[in-house]
Amino acid sequence: MRAMLQVFRAVASAMIGVGKKQNLEKDFESTEKNGPWSYIIVGLIMTILFIGTILFAVKFALS
Fold it and tell me: Residue 16: what are its φ and ψ, rounded to 5°?
């Protein structure tokens, strides 16, 4: 669970363009140990949620 929270934080930080070098190093270590799939999956889910939120906001604003 803790590792998944770290992945979520890393992806969220990357999406808004902020982060610390210390966290970047942790992310690279985690990727080397476990592979990139958790980051890819969380990134895709968050991207889909972001697009859905934008579509909802636009439809709401236009109605």
Answer: -100, -5
